[in-house]
Structure formats: structure tokens, C-alpha cells
Amino acid sequence: MRIDIISVVPDLLEGPFSHSILKRAEEKGLAKVVVHNLRDYSDHKQKQVDDYAFGGGAGMVMKIEPIAKCIEHLQSQRSYDEIIYMAPDGERLEQKAVNALSLKKNLMILCGHYKGVDERVREVFVTREISIGDYVLSGGELAAAVLSDAIIRLIPGVLNDESSALSDSFQDNLLAPPVYTRPAEWRGHGVPEILLSGHQQKIDDWRYDQSVKRTKERRPDLLE
Fold first, then answer.
1. What is the tens place of the pLDDT at every residue in 54-86?
2. In which band, very low, low, confident or very high, does the pLDDT at 163 lie, cut at 50, 70 and 90?
3. Are 63 and 54 in contact (CB under 8 A)?
4. How far is CA 162 from CA 67, 99, 158, 201, 204, in A?
5. 2-16 burial, b if ≥16 CB within 10 A, otherwise e?
6. For range 137-147, the mean pLDDT
7. Peptide bond before 10: cis, by omega within 30 degrees of 0?
8. Closest by alpha carbon to 59, among 129, 13, 118, 140?
9. Nearest residue to 108 via CA among 60, 156, 76
10. How does residue 206 score in pLDDT terms, banded at 50, 70 and 90?
11. CA-to-CA distance for 92 and 152, rounded, in angstroms?
């Protein structure tokens, strides 16, 4: 898989993709993330990529010309399954969508900034708009990193134990059950005996029951 991210502040994305699972995925040749500096596609002498909004009001708007130039340059090199715009008013990101996106080959992610992008960008180029929550960030970079992480970890071979991703929260519209590790006794707090029994079927049943219980208590909306 290849993910191309378009950003006004690409330095914000250096950290997330140079460590842990995402770095391992790239080293294995399973995923490649390329960050593009939008200012490189500006024809302005000062590399400006924003301007005042028509109609007035506070805040600047990202201009369509450099965005179009960048997107069309990337499209000339490969075909993209989705061009995603990270936006507060996009569809709420859920595991089902992440699962589907992990099966794609090429994705492009546009990070908004300032007051957002010229609406014509969304009308002409964007195929999907995604929000990671009902709040506003300074830009779409952190949201793009969240989306990329959620997608890449599902690619076969990225995790050492591929079954791990299948037992994550939300995969079956259930939250994950409690987990424990050594020591079995700590300051009077023990581990449920069933987990020490060695009886795998009973352990699996207990975990499922705990998932249902936790989901009912914390996210009953998932069971609807």
C-alpha cells in the first residue's frame, strides 16, 4: 500500500511515521507513506498557499491552485482508490471504514489547515471526507497520522501476530475485554482464575462475555 499525504506543515508528520509499527511496515515493504509539502506546488514568490475568504470573515482559506497542481501531479504517476480530505464535518471514522481502506492499494490524504480548503477542491477532487472526532484541530496532519496508523496496522504481515488486530475493540462492534499479564498477584489484586486455567474455550467464552459487558456499560450504542 502507498499513502500520499499533502500538507502545509509536513514536519508535523515526521515523528509518527519514523517509529514503531509504521516504520516496521515500511521496512518490510508492506506500506509506504510519502508526505508532500504543498508549498512546493505554489507559484507564488513567497510560496503562499492561502488567501482571504471571499465575503470576509476571520481566518485564511487554502487556495485551489497549488492543491490542484499537487493532486494532478500525483495522479499522473498512479491511480488512487480514494482522495481523502481530513475535515471536522466529514464522516466519523469507524473501524468498518478502516477495514475497507486497508484493502486499497493507493490512497491520497489532503490535510486541511487554517479555515479549510477552497470548497471547489472538495467538489472536484475529493472522493471521501473523514473526521476523527467532533472537535477541531489546528490542522489535518495529526488526523491523517491517526487514519494512516489505523489502516496500516491491518495490512497482513505488519503486526507480528496478525490475529491481534482481529481482537481489537470495534472489530465486532464490541469493546475489547480486560487483559492481564505477570505477575499474577500484585498488592492483593489478582488475575481472574479462568485466565490461569489453561482451558482455551472457557477463556474465549469469558473474554466474549467481558466484551459484551464492557460494551453495554461504556458504549451501548455499539450494540444497537
1. 999 999 999 999 999 999 999 999 999 999 999
2. low
3. no
4. 37, 14, 8, 20, 17
5. ebbbbbbbbebbeeb
6. 96
7. no
8. 118
9. 76
10. very high
11. 19
Distance from C-alpha of 143 to C-alpha of 64, rounded to nearest angstrom: 21
DSSP for 58-91 reads SSEEE-HHHHHHHHHHHHTT---SEEEEEEEEEE
Rounded to 10°, the helix 20-27/141-152 angle is 60
The SS3 assignment for 28 reads coil
HSE-CB for 105 with a 13 A CA cutoff: 4
Q: Which three cell numbers stand for residue 155?
A: 495490512
Question: Cell 475485554 appears where?
Answer: 177
* Cell numbers given for 162: 496478525
For residues 13-17, give the mean pLDDT: 88
Domains for the chain: give ranges and CATH numbers: 2-152 (3.40.1280.10), 167-223 (1.10.1270.20)
Cell of 175: 469493546
User: Backbone phi, then psi, for 47, in 5-degree steps?
Assistant: 60, 35
